[in-house]
Amino acid sequence: MKADKTIAKAWIKAQGRASRSSTSFVVILGLLSTLLGLMQAWALARTLASILTSHPGNAPPAIGLFLIVSVARTGLSVIQDVMASTSSLIARRRLRSDILARIIGEGPALLRRQHSSVIASTLVDRVEALDGYFARWLPASALWLVSQWIVVAAVFWQNHKAGIILAICCATLPVFQAVFGIATAVASRRQFLAMTRLQTRFLDRVKGIATIVLSGGTERETQALAKSADDLRIRTMKVLRIAFIASATTDVAMVAALVLIVITQSHSLTNSTPELTLTRALYAILLVPEAFASFRALSAAYQDRAHATAAAEAMHALEPIPNERAVMGAIATDAAHSLSITAKDLSFAWNQERGPVIHNVSFTLPAGETLILEGPSGSGKSTLLELLLGFVAPSEGRIFLGGQDMANMTPRQISSQISWIGQKPVLFAGTIRENILFAKPDASEPELDAAISAAAMDRYLPLLPAGLETRIGEGGFGLSGGQAQRIAIARAFLKNAPILLLDEPTSHLDPATEAEILDSLHRLTQGRTVVLCTHSAQARQFHGRHLVLNRGRAISYTEEAA
Amino acid sequence: MSASLQSEHPKNGTALSRIIQIWKPHYGRLITGGIIAELAVCSGLLLMGQAGSRIAAAAVGVAAGSALLQIAGSSQIVLRYLERLYTHDAMFRALSDLRVWFYRRLAQGAAAGLGFQRSGDLLSRLVSDVQTLDSLYLRILIPLAAAVLTLPVATIVWLKAGTLPGLITGALFAILAFALPMMAARLSRKFGPDILHAESDLRVAALDLASGLREARAFGAEDVLANVVTQRQDVLFAAQRRQSLRMALTNGLAGLIAKAGVAVMLCAVAGVIFHQSAPVAGIAALFVAITALDAVTGLSRAGLLYGQVSHAADRIMDVAERGSQVQEGTSPLPARHDIRIENVTFRWTPERAPVFQDLTLTLREGERAALIGPSGAGKSSLAALLLKVAAPEKGEILLGGTNIAALQNDALRSRVAWLSQSSHLFDDTIRDNLLLGRTNISEDALWAALEQAKIADTVRTLPDGLDTWIGESGSKLSGGQGRRIALARVLLSDAPVLILDEPATGLDADTEKAFLETLNNVGEGRSVLLIAHRLTGVERLDRIWRFENGHVVSSAG
């Protein structure tokens, strides 16, 4: 917990540094705006003093100055707003490309640790939530102290007595914050946890609403929900009360400064006070709200800081960007050059505590032959396939593709040699054409047609609303398991890689569909080096070597094709 | 917000006003909050007005006490604190009522069907929509109400500095507090969806990338997916850039108008353009103008929130008011539990092809049957029909001879229990997952159900036993263990009819077999309908129906 907090702090600091150049531009504009604020107050004070001391001739130029400065200040604040959001855009763009690189760098192994929706929300929502942090909190936290004390110094320069009062009131702010701040931090972290738990509960109950309704528990759950919603309110209010007290202390400091300055200044005024003295008194009064404005902006952005901590924790759950592996000479990538696969003494553990899931597995598969992987679930078949795919690197041992050590190949070189079909293909939001071309974006139209008919997709394409251009995936047309699997097969035909890895490709299909799919797969395996992982009796029609795994060990290995 | 806005967008006006109607029990608090807010604004005006007039009075040699100034100052602090506390509390009370109301509507209405169709993302968006509505009261209604009440008070003070300048400043205040925010609201209503769509497109691209990491690596196509994410991000950022420019300009315009108001007062005090006012009254009016105009400058920004809030309200109302497709009945529960489906035709929506056409099946009491059909053929709709989550277009479903349309929903569901791969496991303890709020079940009954589901031994070995927290969707359990907990929950219900809707899908082959074997023994004495895309051979069945293209094509047994 403590270590996590240090990491979060370091990360947040690094974020601040990375956006320093764009933030500092916003801060400089903010300082300019404070200086214009001083001129504005001076122009106002001068107008009033000239009237009160019956020198109305001095008023019009001062009013003119006030107008000019006001327009300039408004223009400045427009630029400041736009710059702040631009600097947030730049920061979020940088952060997102960093997260993207980390996700892609870790690759499929990440899916073993995190649900895809968590990964997606780290990439989208976590980053978007930092808008306020980059646009408001960073500039406000750099600006507030400087801006506040510029105003205090300006008041002191013109009016010592008022300057000292203002300085004392401003100096109490950090003291108040310290007194309430420590207590709030402790209280609110606890409250914050309880709050998130209750919010999660509501979401969870809504997601499971069918289960509740169908078990006849609607009324009971509604009552429980009403109770916890009320609990949420009470807890939220506890946190807010402390936050409000903290901001009330700002009010106390400001009002005290205002009242004290008015009273002390008006005591020293008479109807024969010179114009300049009166100007200085009014100047001090008018600047009181200005002195506290920057601190208010900071308090308003405090929640944005909390988002940064949450994002830091999500980022910490991702691996750092890996170094590219040494690039070796390219190897031929077409099916004409079949490749052999050799595994030597492979061992692998997902984590040290749970121990290895693959123990000393070795096999040799000559080019163009098939290896059938068997074994009960949890015996390490899928892990072995992930090792062959290069999704994870073996803890010990080596894998050779066509005689070349995989440890010396880049992920891209490995994937260029391999086609893979899993239990359920992931279909992306887009047309069927885009989903197939994914395997080879520069494929020609005849190549695409050939892949489609080889995968027997032309049997169902005409039945779809827009054929090959039908939109599928999120928000699109739903395909059956068999139809989806045919897209995966078409992808593999299109890619035409020398090695084919099949991970229980028919386990989610009904028997009739399974037979048809196996038929297409059989065609796909011709002339390729194949590793097939299967449970199905029908898949026994594939001939090849057999490797049986149990608890991560090879318990039988037949080199004879059977 | 205002009459003209409502007439232009009648649909959203009604959605928002209906939400405000739901808050009726809280009107007292909500209005009191508004009054405190107004008092806080007035004390702020008094404070600045007093500060100005006191200095002015001293300068022209009139003595004035400081009591009023001190009172204004301290009441300003207290009132602002109270305002924040009270309005937030009132808002959260209203919001928690809204949540409960929304939940009840979801449960009654088509939402049970929504949950059935597993659109979890839609539901979680709705939850955050409810959250968004706090802006409506705190950031739009309260400041707006305060502005409405401030206008006459402040105008009276301003009129003392001269009729014409007073009226002009009042008019500028009205523009700042009402006209400009309304313009901003209209803008946000128009452009708000841009950002929402861009955001959801980006989310889809990110989800594609995350769930397709294996495909991406296997095909060396990481760049393709990453580029889509980057492109969608550019679209979103362009929309955000436009939005922030609009915001900055609106704010700038508001700032200029506020300063113009101050300048008018200044001219009146100085006797430039206007007749010169009495100095003390004029300076007090000037200070009031500075404070009052400054306080409503932020309303234009709140106007830009309006689009977001009203879209959230639209979506909530859209789901909540989607009436239930099934009617409540009143007939008493029949004594027997034979199920007869007679000539049933059903489709989820009128524009889609029917899932069933003239389907006729009989499941006798105590019988075990399976309905087998290809994936995605809509077999699960049968469970929805039997549980009255959906109603058939044609034909009827009888339980023990009574049409289920005539039965009370909850009564029917106490007779027919449902277990599926989408049976939800709650982020709660095992005990609470089993009980689902029921209090009339003994500890022994819980353990008996766990025994039957063959999970009791596992639960016993857990350090916290029944009180073990199982995580989001049972993430701390293995897939098979989670399914067994869900099974134990169904067994607790004593329902004589069990619908097992693809109960083992998603489990690996061995776990699936073991789970199905457990199911063979738990149904003793109950009718069981198994819905699946294939049989593994371990199921004990009296009867098998094969289902294809909306028809039963063969039956065996």
CATH H level of the largest domain in chain A: which superfamily?
ABC transporter type 1, transmembrane domain
Strand order, largest beta sheet of chain B = 6-7-8-3-9-10
- Poorly predicted parts of chain B: 1-12, 114-119
> What is the helix content of chain B?
55-70%
Helix content of chain A: 55-70%
| Derived structural class of chain B | alpha/beta
Fold and architecture overview:
The complex is a heterodimer of chains A (562) and B (557). Chain A is of the alpha/beta class. Chain A has helices at 2-18, 20-52, 59-106, 109-113, 116-128, 131-158, 160-207, 209-214, 218-267, 275-300, 302-316, 381-388, 411-417, 432-437, 445-454, 481-495, 511-525; strands at residues 341-348, 358-365, 370-374, 396-401, 404-405, 418-421, 430-431, 471-472, 499-503, 529-533, 545-550, 553-558. In chain A, helix 1 (2-18) crosses helix 11, helix 2 packs antiparallel against helix 10 (275-300) and helix 6 packs antiparallel against helix 7. Chain B has helices spanning 3-8, 10-22, 27-59, 67-108, 111-116, 120-132, 134-159, 163-211, 213-218, 222-270, 279-297, 299-320, 380-386, 409-415, 430-435, 443-452, 456-461, 479-492, 509-522; strands at 339-346, 356-363, 368-372, 394-399, 402-403, 416-420, 497-501, 527-532, 543-548, 551-556. By secondary structure, chain B is of the alpha/beta class. Chain B starts with a helix and ends with a strand. Chain B has a six-stranded mixed sheet with strand order 6-7-8-3-9-10, with helices on both faces. In chain B, strands 2-1-4-5 form a four-stranded antiparallel sheet, with helices on one face. At the A-B interface, helix 2, helix 3, helix 5, helix 7 and helix 8 of A face helix 3, helix 4, helix 5, helix 6 and helix 8 of B.
